[in-house]
Amino acid sequence: MNAFKLRNTVKVDSSGKLDPLNGQPTALKDLPDTAKRAVVFGQIKAALSLPLKLAREFPQYALSKGLIGAHQAANAPTFEQLKGFAHREFFGGHEKYATPDANPILTTATGLLEAWFHEMTYFDFNYLRSFSYINLIGSNQDSFKLNTTSSGVTWAQRQAGDRTPVRREFAEGESSVGFLEFTAAIGILDQWLQFNQFYRIEEVVNEFLNAAYVKRASLHYALFTATSNEEAFATDDATTFNNAVSTVTQATKNKGYGAGAQPVFDLYVDTKRAGRLLAMLEATRGSLIVAYGTQNQPIAVAPRSVNVCPDLSTSGTGYYAVLAGGKLKTADWKALTIESQRDVTVSTTDWHGVEQYNAAAGDANQIIRVKFA
């Protein structure tokens, strides 16, 4: 299914000019080509940034769509929540636009958002679970800092009258993560507008849109696949998973993450081996797969999520267990935006997209590849 669909009804005033607030509904195909071009540009501009904005605004729902496990399912946002989001994103927070009565387009905008929620599986946002987000949009900072300072402080029993030793030796470290800029461009032919071939525009824009979010996902997953940490296969999948959780927990326990005895892990697996991972997760205490099956012990820590990722190679030898948060950071400097430029020599309007973002894994010990064999 296509996530982007052109809305075929717009509002124009009595002279035929676009008037989204007070105009009368008019079919898109009945507009002159110049007005069609303006409407299409406006809809594409909104569509480019909507998926990521929605994922940031309602992460529990957006991410649960890609999650295996019915117990983690989340309800869709209410109409009032979507209306508040539309109010802020589309109308700059002006109170006079707060209700559909005061502003008829608000109902349309909220309906558009609801339609996007039904198509959330079109994009892979599951990596967002494990990363802490830094919003640098509009900032004058072209980078963010990853602080790896550690004091190695320990607590010790003190006898009456003893002096408390002060730890003043620090293993200091800091790295700077700058933005990366990504661009792409597509051409919308005048003939598509002239002959109302809107389906061609939808197909091109969906490919353009999907490629942008695939690129973003692949950058984040590359931080997982780059790890050299591995947990060797031991006896069965459940035992290996328990060993991996212990390895990561022990390696990060003194780093201030607050993981505790029940750390929050997200699992990432390729499309070919997802079933094997699901079978392993059935190895809970008292389950038949432990009593009579192939797993010798139950899993000790239930992962928060299991995410099937097309960006992970199906020729891989394992999956990735990731301790969420900590020094896993992702940042945006510029949201996905477009500019258009006419090229009369070929009768087309070129749409140039650009966005700026980056991500970093400041502590390699938060990620481990868990071997299947």
How would you describe what is shown here?
There is one protein chain. With 373 residues, this protein is of the alpha/beta class. The chain folds into two domains: 1-65 and 67-123, no CATH class; 124-373, phage-related protein like fold, CATH 3.90.1690. Helices cover 32% and strands 23% of the residues. The strands form four sheets. It has a five-stranded mixed beta sheet with strand order 7-13-10-8-9. Strands 3-11-12-6 form a four-stranded mixed beta sheet.
Provide keyphrases for this structure.
elongated, four-stranded mixed β-sheet, phage-related protein like fold, alpha/beta, 9 helices, 13 strands, 373 residues, 2 domains, five-stranded mixed β-sheet
How would the blueprint of this fold be written?
Layout: E1 9-12, E2 24-27, H1 33-57, H2 59-64, H3 79-91, H4 105-117, E3 132-135, E4 143-147, E5 174-178, E6 180-189, H5 190-194, H6 198-225, E7 230-231, H7 237-252, E8 265-269, H8 274-281, H9 288-291, E9 305-308, E10 318-323, E11 328-343, E12 348-361, E13 367-371
Parallel strand pairs: 3-11, 7-13, 8-9
Antiparallel strand pairs: 1-2, 4-5, 6-12, 8-10, 10-13, 11-12
Helix pairs in contact: 3-4
How many separate structural domains?
2
Tell me the structural class: alpha/beta
User: Approximately how much beta-strand content do the residues carry?
Assistant: 15-25%
Largest beta-sheet details: 5 strands, mixed
Q: Briefly, what CATH class of the largest domain? A: Alpha Beta
Radius of gyration: 25 Å
* Count of extended strands: 13
Proportion of residues in helical segments = 25-40%
Q: First CA to last CA: what distance?
A: 37 Å
CATH architecture of the largest domain: Alpha-Beta Complex
The CATH topology assignment of the largest domain is: phage-related protein like fold
User: pLDDT below 50 for ≥5 consecutive residues: which ranges?
Assistant: 69-73
SSE string, helices as H and strands as E? EEHHHHEEEEHHEHEHHEEEEE
Strand arrangement across the biggest beta sheet? 7-13-10-8-9
Shape: elongated
- Number of helices, counting only DSSP H or I runs of 4 residues or more: 9
Q: Give the quaternary arrangement of the chains.
A: single chain
Mean pLDDT, as a whole number?
A: 82
